[in-house]
Amino acid sequence: MAPRAMVEPVAFLSYAHTDDTGRGRLTRLRTDLEHELCERSGRDIKIFQDRSDVVAGDLWRSTLETGLGRVLFLLPVVSPAFVASDECLREFTQFLALERAEQSRRGARRRIIPIYWSEVDLAGLLAAAEASSDHQRAAMLRVLRDRQHHAIRPLRTLRPSSGTYVREIGRLAQVMADRLPPPPSLGSRLAGSVSVLARRRGGRLRTALVGLVTVLAVLVSFVLWNILGSGGGDGTAADPNAGDGAPAGQGVPAGGEVPSDTERSIEAAWQQIVAENERTERADRERGASPDYLTVVLAGHLSSGEQTDGLDNVELLTALTGMRQFNAAHRDDLRMRVWAANLGGDAEFAAQAGDKISEAARDAGPVIVVGLGQTRDDSEKMINNVGQMDLAGNTDAFSGVPMIAATQSGTDLTGEPGYFRIGGSDDRQAEMGLSWAPRGLLHRVVPFIVYDDADRWGRSMLDAYNRKLTSPEYKSRFDGTAFETLLEQRVIAYSTDPDTPRPLGDVLAEPQDRICGDNPEINGTAVTDAPRLIIYAGRTAELPELLSLLMTLPAKCRSNVHVLGGDALSDLRDGDAWDTVREILEKDPVTRPKLLFSAFGPEEPNSARRLLENGLIADFGPAESEFRRVRDLLPEEDRPRFAEFPDSAAWALYDAVTLAGQVGLRAGSCRREPAGDGCRELLDRADAVRETSHRRLTTGFDGFDLYVALREVYQGRRGFVGVTGVVHDPEPDRALDVPDQGGGLDPAGKLMVVYELSAEPSRAVITVSCAIPDPRAAAAASTRCDGREVGLGAP
Asked: Which of 633, 625, 538, 547 is nearest to 591 (CA)?
């Protein structure tokens, strides 16, 4: 790849500098778009940006005008600050004149391609510009309005690793790639490169030498990259590298670009996993031991829906923590190694990851996949490509690779081949929303559901609430309360569908009448200060708009509003919507709505101690101490990017790794000693599932044995208590139920914890509100959401 200074720009990024403050998001957007366009066009690409292409000593205005005149595309980053900027208007007007002058020519390629950065009322601003006779600005606004051809979410509200962001960058890159001129022939490109080098170095001999060295360097780099990318030849550092976003585990990413701080921290964590794998196998060789190995594949944690994360660095460390603890305790019977696979935030990447995991698992001995969760499409792709196999038309046959999902996922995935959960299902999330209000206050609470009808997760959550509210348990519980009419009267459905958008502001155009005017009656008297519970099943990107609408309510009403979101809202503390939410939380702490979210375990030390004191989770002390030791192994400059205490998602992954080790020990023990407690039944059931899948046991134990051992735990036959709670209450005498097709199970009564989110200057603050454990758990009534004392005012 040529140095940036030597590449002619194809596009000009026009933006208001106030939009590129803080973490330099627009600079990141420019580099992301450059890389994507480079991939799609197969050539070096440069997008002109004044921060990187106007160097010291340049005449600023002259350099910008030169940049505008020589590019094919203007990329206006549309925001309120952009529309108000006279300099941005000048750049837009100048390029618009060039575009229009070229339109009469055949093969015209210049084009203005807007990037919608934040919400802008283009129609309203256009009307104002026309009313004030601001003709240039009105012309710009007409072009921006006419070219807003699909209602994407503003990029400012999206994480750079989110599926929506990645797809929008891909769309923009494809629009540009389709309008690029055909590349020169290979011969002319080589000749041009050689002539440039010859002029710079002054002679044919040097040109020939440079050309030869360049070719050799490319060949050597290609060979080395393939060796490093495939992992160690003996399997000690194997890494499926599944998905385009997978960390390579070695060196600098292909293409030579400098990785971000986050990418470097992920690489540092992954290198520690590679080193631990190598240390474990080296120690076994040195002492002449040959134990069985269980391979745990960490499929990169992605939060549900389009707002997704890449491989989370803290989760890499909790996986390493679990592996180190396991290997320290088990030196002779079974050892654990960890591979990592990044699913990339897209179902296509998930399918690629599944293929690579399946391929790597063929010769790796027993393999179990942990993490998962992802979007619904990602989970289904992973189940199809990893957990099941197509056998003589039977697509439900279990492949022999069990999976433990560590995050919430759709209820319809329950029972899929090999698919187990440490996190809960959508139905369990619905139970959380319906169990939050104290039983003694149910007659006063007015509930609402707000969801995105265009989002598959939102629709799935509405279905889950429908199933629960129509079940005998909840129908009797809510008899005579406002919950009884929730689905008929208080569902607020907005839509982010590009073709038929229904913005939340339009659907909730009169929030005071809709939210505050719906009052329950007690003894014939309307209760105007009734608590309002808004169950939010939307995405974090739309939450600021909802809170802004609620802030328009009268103080007395909005102070009694509780917005209760799913576990995805915990991402708010690190997401780009946090700036807006924080302003609202800090603006009026007394009368603002309360913002709550749920998680499947502890989010910080205080909540962990409270849950432990109530007997709801395992003692996290040893794991916390080991996590700190693992964190201290990282280079000092990388440590600040790793939380000092794992959050619930990271602890869920730790539990999944720990559970994988437990069932690995169980399966291996039963194969070695079939007469052991319950082993004959386990082995017989594993043989039956294996026979259904037309597989044969080779040596030792395999994934079919792991599968039945997991079924034992998930049916209470074998206990497991993790940092995120109990998988199933003990039922040691329960009959073992194992379907021949290899269907997985969910945890019974998965622990859920509700937190309140507030803000102090520059940081988020979370506190435990209450917990929703398995009804059989012996937690104090004051800790249970539905068992709290009923006080005056809001719950």
From this structure: 547
Q: What is the pLDDT of residues 645-691, one digit of tens each?
A: 998 888 999 999 999 999 999 999 999 999 999 999 999 999 999 98
Given this model, what pLDDT does residue 305 score? Answer: 30
Q: What type of residue sits at position 626?
A: E
At position 165, the amino acid (one-letter code) is Y
Q: Which residues make Cβ contacts (< 8 Å) with residue 219, sequence separation at least 6?
A: none
Between CA 618 and CA 612 the distance in angstroms is 7
Reduced to 3 states, what is the DSSP secondary structure of residue 21?
coil
Residues 64 and 59: their CA atoms lie apart, in Å, by 9
Backbone angles phi, psi at 121, to 5 degrees: -85, 80
Position 344 confidence tier, pLDDT thresholds 50, 70, 90? low
- Token readout for 465 is 């609430």
Closest CA to 488 of 466, 467, 519, 472: 466
**pLDDT for res 791:** 38
* Identity of the highest mean pLDDT range in 167-171, 223-227, 628-632: 628-632
Measured CA to CA, the distance from residue 211 to residue 537 in angstroms comes to 59
Half-sphere exposure of 781 (CA within 13 A, CB side): 7
**Alpha-carbon span 387 to 354, nearest angstrom:** 9
Give the DSSP letter string of 471-522. Answer: SHHHHHHTTTSGGGGHHHH-EEEEB--SSS-B-HHHHTS-HIIIIIS---EE
Tens-digit pLDDT profile for residues 103-157: 545 445 678 889 988 888 888 899 999 999 998 999 899 888 877 644 455 787 7
Give the strand pairing for 763-772 and 752-760. antiparallel
pLDDT of residue 375: 56
Burial of 243 (0-12, 13-18, 19+ CB in 10 A): buried
* CA 317 distance to own-chain centroid: 17
Measured distance CA(403)–CA(242) in Å, rounded: 16
Amino acid at 4: R
pLDDT at 779 > cutoff 80? no
Q: What is the dihedral of CA 113, 119, 123, 124, to 10 degrees?
A: -140
State the Cα–Cα distance between residues 87 and 278, nearest whole angstrom: 57
Longest dimension (CA), the chain: 100
What phi, psi does 404 have (nearest 5°)? -125, 105
The CA distance from 244 to 355, in Å, is: 13
Percent with pLDDT over 70 in the chain? 73
- Work out the angle at residue 177's Cα, subtended by the Cα atoms of residues 174 and 178, and round it to the nearest 5 degrees: 85
Going by their DSSP bridges, the two strands 446-452 and 532-537 should be labelled as parallel
Total Cβ atoms within 10 A of residue 662: 18
d(CA 154, CA 81): 14
Task: Say if residues 785 and 768 touch (Cβ distance below 8 Å).
Answer: no
Provide the token pair at 166. Answer: 């990645």
Tokens of 765: 């603050």
Per-residue confidence band for 788, with pLDDT thresholds at 50, 70 and 90: low
Determine the pLDDT at residue 262: 56
What pairs with residue 755 in β-bridges?
A: 597, 768
Q: Which tokens go with 553?
A: 């309510």
| C-alpha span between 771 and 432 (Å, rounded) | 9
Tell me, what's the pLDDT at 335? 93
Q: How big is the chain by its Cα radius of gyration, in Å? A: 29
* 440 vs 788 pLDDT, higher one: 440
Tell me how far CA of residue 373 lies from CA of 403, 414, 568, 600, in angstroms. Answer: 10, 12, 12, 13
Residue type, 408: Q
Q: What pTM value is reported for the model? A: 0.69
Distance CA 738, CA 12 (A): 61
Q: Could you identify the residue written with the tokens 């969910």?
A: 746
H or E segment and range at residue 413: none
Q: Is pLDDT at 360 greater than 90 in this prediction?
A: no
SS (H, E, C) 6-18: HCCCCEEEECCHH
